[in-house]
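User: Please predict the structure of the protein below. I'd like the answer in structure-token form so I can feed it into my own downstream comparison script.

Assistant: Understood. Taking the following sequence of 434 residues as input:
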Amino acid sequence: MNSTLTQRLPLFPASTTVANDSLKVSGFDLQLLAEKHGTPLYIYDKLELDAAADKYREFLNASWPGKWSVTYAGKAFLCTGIAQWAANQGFYIDCTGRGEINIAVKAGVSKDKILAHGVNKSTEDLKSAVAYAGTIVVDNLSELKRLLSLSQAQTLPDLWLRFQPGSSVETHAYTQTGHSGSKFGMDRVQILEAVRICRENNLPLVGLHFHQGSQFRDPEPLGDGIDRALDLVQEIGFPETWHLSPGGGWGISYHEEDLPHPPIEMYVDFITSAMLEGCRKRGLTLPILHLEPGRSLVARAGVAIYQIGTVKDVGARTWVLVDGGMADNPRHALYGTRYSCLTVAHPLARPEKNVSIAGPYCESGDVLIEQVDLRNVQEGEFIAIPVSGAYHLSMSSNYNGALRPEVLLLENGEMHTLQKRETPPELTQRDVST
């Protein structure tokens, strides 16, 4: 086994192997899958999903003496099958707006497990949340006042207030959320006003939520947010049964040079230790603790498979052009995310050339991988990009008339279609002739 394969294989689901000189995931030959189902093709390994879920359960059971829950971030990737998987795990599902709420409802998720988020919820979003969600995380005072109006006609679900702690984790500026001036949440003064409104109107306020950023690897900055949140809880005074969510966003490695993956245990242990000590010092009863693992639950379970259409040399650069890109994965264009890949066939071959991998779309920013060492690949071959399970398909588009990929769920030799490939006629279903 060459060193490149050894270095990159840990980015893929743990079930990934090489057999008959081809990549396999959960027993499925990726070459055969790509030939049968077409590309771009996204696959999810259920064993990898289950393993990540089990780790969160194991570490929370070991380190948190009170009640706890895990919330699956719908924004990472949500379809009915994934919503059903999360519900079967006993997880909450974080839904941003009525669109994601509708997916969760269609999947049969119980009301008590649907949590409604959103920084600027419309009236329709709020009506949907009141009807179908068990918890609404209130982002701002305007939203709270709209909920107050809705409460005149129907009972509201539980309310948590989203706190802006004034500090963030170390991550890309676009994914920092807790700093002063962020568009997310309320500062201390606004939180206190929200508490006053809730109590004067007997609204079901039971918890506090904050989030400091996404795709971080060092949990230390969470300590400051936890301290500020607990100070606020002490000032507010909650009933004996109360909820606190310190958000989530724990990171994962996208490139072999970033391995190993940040251990989930380090993240859970830091939060639970800080919470236990913080509550002890302030004389607070332990809350029901809610964690939002985000991509660390689902990213590594996903693999994107593309077909090479063109290989061309332009001066000192060799472009390997594939049939997907920023329309199904805009993360490099948005954040400069550094990915890696393996060829589906002959992944054991030693690299021979440094190439750039890009898509077919009319943007210079339509690049998947700036530089990667590969063997000499041929047009028509397939490549597999790991760590593709989160914030790819959920941010996909129809740019240049791109058709959203087929999505498969694999498990020990069994395969289920999560989403069918989009077809050209579907692109005009919303159009109205003039």
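That's the full token string. Confidence is low (pLDDT under 50) at residues 168-178.
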